[in-house]
Structure formats: C-alpha cells, structure tokens
C-alpha cells in the first residue's frame, strides 16, 4: 500500500469559535477504524437521527468555523492546486475545526448540527478551495448513510467510532462504473473490481462502497458498506488528472479479494423514500459548491478590479471601478448570485424539514424536495460557470497571468459541473411542472 503524499504545510489556523457546550471534540488525530468494536451505547430509535431545523445561533457558529477554515485554505490554494497532492494536511484542518462531525449526534460528541449548516459550510469553503469543499460535501453524504440506511440498533456504534476517530468518509460508489463483484464468502463477502472517481478515498479514513451482491440469499440486493482506509486488498491508483478539483482525491480504487464482514455493512439499499433522500442531498451539496465558487470568483474579481489604475482610454470614467460597463457586469453577477443564494437557503431549510419527518416521508414529499433541489442545481451550475468565466471581463488582461490564479474558479466549477448532465435536471423540473411526473429513483435522481 503506497503512502499518500502530503500537501505543502497549511499555514497557521485562525482562531475558531468554540462549539456549543452540548458538543465535544475528540482529541485524537486520525484514528484507524476499529471494525470489531461491539459497544452497545444506545441512541434514539426514531427513524431520523435529525430533528427540527438549524437555529440562527447554530448557523452563525458553523458559519464562523467555516470562514476561519476557508481563510486558511485560501492563503495557498493555488500553490496546493498546482502541487496536486493528496490533501492529507488539509483534512487535518477539517478534523481540528470540528466540521467533519458537524452532523453527528451531540450525545456521541458530534456537533449535533443540521444539513443546512453542513451545506453552508460547503458553500463557504468553495469560495477559496472547492476541492476541499467537495471532499467535505461527500463526507457529509457518505457518513450520512449511517442515518439514512443503517438500522437504529447499529447506528450508535457507527456514530461513536466515526466521532471518536474523527473519520473522513471517502467513497467508491460511482454508479456509472459498476465494475465491482461482491460475492458471499462464509458469513461475509469478497470484493473485487475497479471503481473510478472515488472522491476522498485515498486521503480519508474510511471508504464507503456500494455493490450488488452476486449469489447467496441477498443475490441482486444493493449493499452499503464501509472499509477502513488500509484494508488489505484496497489499492489507491492516484490517477486523478482533471483540469480542476485537483485536490479532491478522486482517483480510482482497485479492490482485490477484499474481505467484507457483516460489521462493515451499513445497510441494504431500497427505494424507500426516507433512505433515498441521500441523492437529493448530494445534489444540494453540488448546488452550494457551485454557488460558493461563483461567490469566490466575484470576490477575487472585485479585489483585482478595485486595484486597477486609470480606466479604458475610451471610458468617461477615471478608473475601472467607476466605469459603467464594469459596474453593469458586477451588478449582473451580484444579482444572480443573490438569487441562487436565496434558493439554496430555502432548499437547505426545506431539506431539514423533510428529513425530520423520518418514516413519514412519502414518495410525493421526497419527489417534491428533489425537484426543489434540481432547480438549484440548474441555476447554480449556470451562474457558477458564467461568473467564473466572465469575471475576466472586468479584471482585464493582466488577470490572466498564471500567478494570479483567477482561472482556478473556472477550472473547478467546469470540472465538477460535469458530474451529471444539468440538462437532465432541467428535464426533471420541466416534466414535474408540466405533468407532475417524477423520475425513477436512482443515485442521480
């Protein structure tokens, strides 16, 4: 097993606001998963481990935490992007800040937070480092399977271990690349095959894997299971070579006769409405990521524009910041970003309200929140790409210098927005608005 290379040292971290008194942070750094632990600490047996919605105080706390982390990441984001190494040091920053355990129940030492707070953190980190924001977003979704797909009786053990170990959950679940073979072997399974686009897997602590069982009493069923990073037979190929999101640790993973025990299994996939909320959740994370990139591109563009001397020789203004054409572009961008932000906030609050219903989530309710989030996916994709691309119109030719790094925003949003075609999200929304039709449940819808 090759040792993951570490990124350049992250600068000293700003002071981070303390967590609410109801939460505590473990003192360990990266703790290897103990897959044999059988602690029987109890947890509320209601279907959803999340209730209610985020308070102003909760949102303010996690906003402060995320802004501190984003400021640190922003100090050398371009240099780290160019180094193109697995972000192990950056993930320590997420652990130390408490962001990785934001959604975990407070009774186990987690942050006891809501999904709206988690998506806000993803948005804020995306303003300076969308790669690390992507890993955090996927971590929330991957570890969220504990709440969505694990029986209440098993949740306590999973939550206790992920909080105490401060695990970051990577994944190897790409549904368009189903080249995994999971076959019964004794009371467990053997896993073989290759998965591409495994975000966070090589740099995190555990790897969430989805695979269909071939043979035995669960033949044809879809299993969710988690493997510790250094499990025998798991090899990280380090072949991620995209133009953006370079530090998202999204390379391929090869599985060779990997032992999967019953203790590794989180749950069995179904089309039951509550458990399948995980898919609208990841799409909501994407919407916030693209919004954050747009906000970050505009922020850097404004700094560059304010620093520009004089103005274009045909302009009636003395400086670029006073040029009416520059102001028009800025006004357009700021207005579009504000609209996307309002939709993202509304969708984030609604998502928590739906999750709090637990077993009362119906197929119709699940479909309606998926459509609301699909609307965000459409507009955040378009605004993210537009702002990151057109920001150069107000910053001028000098901003195209490699050392400026303004291209990082476009490279990141252009790369990640290809995750799944936004045109199909437009079709989802249109089919629902016109005919009340909902798409079949999948890992993309």
From TrEMBL:
Gene3D superfamilies, per database record: Acyl-CoA dehydrogenase/oxidase, N-terminal domain (1.10.540.10), Butyryl-CoA Dehydrogenase, subunit A, domain 2 (2.40.110.10), Butyryl-CoA Dehydrogenase, subunit A, domain 3 (1.20.140.10)
Listed GO MF terms: 3-methylbutanoyl-CoA dehydrogenase activity; flavin adenine dinucleotide binding
Organism annotation: Labedella phragmitis
Gene Ontology biological process: L-leucine catabolic process
Name of the protein in its database record: Acyl-CoA dehydrogenase
Domain Acyl-CoA dehydrogenase/oxidase N-terminal: 64-165
Pfam families cross-referenced by the UniProt entry: Acyl-CoA_dh_2 (PF08028), Acyl-CoA_dh_N (PF02771)
Residue stretches making up the Acyl-CoA dehydrogenase C-terminal domain: 285-420
């Amino acid at each position: 097993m090759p040792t993951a290379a570490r990124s350049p040292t992250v600068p000293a971290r700003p002071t981070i606001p303390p967590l609410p008194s109801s939460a505590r942070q473990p003192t360990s750094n990266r703790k290897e998963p103990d897959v044999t632990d059988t602690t029987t600490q109890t947890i509320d047996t209601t279907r959803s481990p999340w209730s209610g919605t985020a308070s102003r105080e909760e949102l303010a706390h996690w906003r402060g935490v995320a802004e501190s982390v984003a400021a640190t990441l922003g100090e050398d984001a371009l240099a780290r992007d160019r180094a193109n190494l697995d972000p192990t040091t950056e993930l320590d920053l997420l652990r130390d800040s408490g962001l990785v355990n934001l959604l975990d129940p407070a009774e186990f030492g987690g942050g006891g937070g809501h999904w709206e707070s988690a998506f806000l953190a993803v948005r804020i980190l995306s303003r300076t480092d969308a790669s690390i924001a992507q890993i955090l977003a996927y971590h929330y979704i991957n570890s969220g399977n504990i709440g969505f797909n694990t029986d209440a009786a098993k949740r306590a053990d999973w939550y206790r271990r992920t909080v105490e170990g401060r695990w970051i959950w990577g994944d190897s679940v790409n549904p368009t690349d189903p080249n995994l073979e999971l076959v019964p072997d004794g009371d467990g399974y053997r896993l073989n095959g290759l998965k591409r686009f495994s975000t966070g897997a090589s740099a995190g602590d555990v790897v969430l894997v989805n695979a269909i069982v071939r043979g035995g009493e669960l033949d044809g069923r879809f299993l969710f299971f988690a493997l510790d990073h250094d499990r025998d037979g798991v090899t990280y190929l380090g072949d991620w070579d995209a133009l953006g999101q370079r530090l998202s640790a999204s390379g391929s993973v090869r599985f060779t006769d990997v032992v999967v025990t019953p203790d590794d299994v989180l749950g069995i996939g179904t089309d039951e409405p509550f458990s399948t909320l995980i898919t609208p959740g990841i799409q909501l994370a994407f919407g916030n990521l693209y919004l954050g990139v747009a906000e970050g591109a505009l922020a850097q563009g404004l700094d560059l524009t304010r620093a520009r001397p004089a103005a274009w020789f045909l302009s009636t203004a003395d400086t670029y910041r006073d040029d009416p054409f520059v102001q028009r572009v800025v006004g357009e961008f700021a207005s579009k970003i504000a609209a996307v932000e309002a939709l993202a906030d509304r969708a984030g609050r609604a998502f928590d309200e739906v999750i709090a219903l637990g077993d009362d989530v119906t197929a119709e309710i699940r479909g309606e929140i998926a459509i609301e989030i699909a609307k965000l996916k459409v507009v955040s994709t378009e605004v993210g790409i537009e702002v990151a691309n057109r920001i150069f119109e107000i910053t001028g030719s000098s901003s195209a210098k490699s050392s400026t790094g303004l291209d990082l925003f476009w490279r990141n949003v252009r790369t990640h927005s290809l995750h799944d075609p936004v045109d199909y999200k437009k079709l989802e929304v249109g089919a629902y608005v016109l005919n009340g039709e909902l798409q079949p449940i999948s890992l993309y819808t």
